[in-house]
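Training component of the fellowship. As part of building independent skills, the fellow (R.M.) carried out the full modelling exercise for a liganded target. The chosen ligand was magnesium ion. The inputs are recorded below so that the supervisory panel can assess the work.
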Amino acid sequence: MNTSPVGFQLAKPVLAIEGLTVSFDGFKAVNDLNLYVDRNEVHVVIGPNGAGKTTVLDLICGKTRATAGSIEFNGRELTRMKEFDIVRAGVGRKFQNPSIYENLTVFENLEMSYPEGRNVFGALFFKRSAAVVARVQAVAAEIFLADLLHQQADLLSHGQKQWLEIGMLLMQDPELLMLDEPVAGMSVSERAQTAELLNRISEGRSVLVIEHDMEFVKSIAHKVTVLHQGKVLAEGSMEAVQSNPKVIEVYLGH
Ligand code: ADP
Ligand code: MG
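Fellow's submitted model of the complex:
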């Protein structure tokens, strides 16, 4: 066992969820959940519809308030923080439907997401500095849109729009990136490219992904958590989870 101070720091999860519960009119959508995400880990949450997967992301990003439990991110308690402060603390979240500006170009969408360009005053006095342009170009290359910087966003394919939104999150350089069903509706080749993208961007950050596509999950997951009725049903490597009889019964068998 590595007992050096540095080793201890690295071993500490970036996100520690303990006893997390949310009750909607008495119905516990998330029920005493424990979940840990390590640094540089791609952690995938799977499970049947209604298991509470999206609600977990809503709780982490502050959109929904917990009834009980804690969400510790880098030692900070998120359950008491406002959504905007959670973003500033380093948590980026992509929703199922992309929220990009359809009438702006790829460049402009990315530029708008640069942290200094974000508040009203920042936008008013925002100067297109060399640093911003360099960052936009670097992110565009990562999300396979380097040649489409001046394309209006509404002309992008469904998959490209999803990548653009991931790029908008990358502009903020989040330490934890959360994605809800990122490959839904994507073509086979777009799925493969998205897997490549997620493998690449997890170097230096943690990624928490909800996904149903098992081929895709297999190609990205370091760890899989199976959620069922707001609780962890199983957890471990893709192989371990796939061969777990309980998981086959409630989810994979269908
Ligand atoms: P999943 O993403 O795993 O399909 P969800 O987290 O969206 O599941 O939903 C889990 C359960 O919680 C569902 O039964 C859903 O109807 C319920 N739920 C989610 N959000 C709310 C809410 N804001 N108010 C009431 N019920 C909700
Ligand atoms: Mg969902």
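The panel noted the following from the submitted structure. The domain at 11-90+177-194+204-254 is CATH 3.40.50.300 (Rossmann fold). The chain has two domains: 11-90+177-194+204-254, 100-173.
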